[in-house]
Design a protein that fits this description.
Distance between the termini: 18 Å
Helix content: 25-40%
Strand content: 5-15%
Number of helices: 6
Radius of gyration: 16 Å
Structural class: mainly alpha
Number of strands: 3
Length: 126
């Protein structure tokens, strides 16, 4: 998941047997103004891993949900590393990722699922 807004889906995905990773980038003011208490609680309760882009975002989220999120990591956003693979390597990369995740060779992997919001520039993305 790519936003707290989609947090309510985490519980459904967990029940269906998925492992979930949620990126939380919203600060408490946004969480409050969008009424995301239930979604944030679902992320804190059900996600296998919660990724925050900075310690301040993690601290704000934990304050918002009222408890530490022990299954969390802080990973800065952005492209800081050199790309290890090129377009010609796609099939090899797909095979390597599936092998690392112990998935079947034809498993479908959903890399990103999130909430479409105009403030995020969805009109430019689509």
């Amino acid at each position: 998941m790519n936003t707290t807004v989609s947090g309510k889906l985490v519980t459904l995905l967990k029940r269906a047997g998925f492992r979930t990773v949620c990126l939380v980038h919203e600060l408490p003011g946004i969480l409050t103004s969008y009424g995301l208490a239930d979604a944030a609680t679902a992320v804190a309760d059900s996600a296998d891993t919660v990724v925050f882009p900075a310690e301040i975002v993690k601290a704000g989220f934990e304050e918002f949900v009222g408890r530490p999120v022990s299954q969390s990591v802080v990973r800065p956003q952005g492209l800081y590393l050199r790309m290890l693979y090129h377009a010609v390597d796609r099939q090899r990369v797909r095979e390597a990722v599936r092998a690392k995740l112990q998935l079947s060779t034809n498993a479908t992997i959903i890399l990103c699922a999130g909430y479409a919001d105009h403030r995020k520039g969805l009109d430019l993305f689509v």
